[in-house]
Design goal:
- By secondary structure, the chain is mostly helical.
- The protein contains three helices and no strands.
- The chain has one domain.
- It is found in: Cell membrane.
- Keywords: Cell membrane, Membrane, Transmembrane, Transmembrane helix.
- One of its GO terms (cellular component) is plasma membrane.
Length: 74
């Protein structure tokens, strides 16, 4: 796999990289926001651990939203 400099990327490739970055920052930010406001008893496991996990690319925030939160029954 060859690595390209930013200037060597096509416009669609640059847009894809920027889009992926925006999605990542939005996911992580919303997960950290939710974690900071959610009571500890409504989080599976330690909040500090989830704060670290959320920082792992796309998988961290998705894991927090799917596995880390305890939601009240409907």
């Amino acid at each position: 796999m060859t690595h390209k400099n930013w200037s060597e990327l096509s416009t669609p490739a640059k847009a894809a990289v920027i889009g992926a970055g925006v999605v990542q920052v939005t996911l992580a930010g919303s997960a950290w926001w939710d974690l900071s406001r959610r009571p500890a008893e409504r989080v599976r496991g330690p909040k500090r651990l989830w704060a670290l996990v959320i920082g792992i690319n796309f998988a961290g925030p998705v894991a927090y939203f799917r596995l880390g939160r305890i939601t009240p029954p409907d």
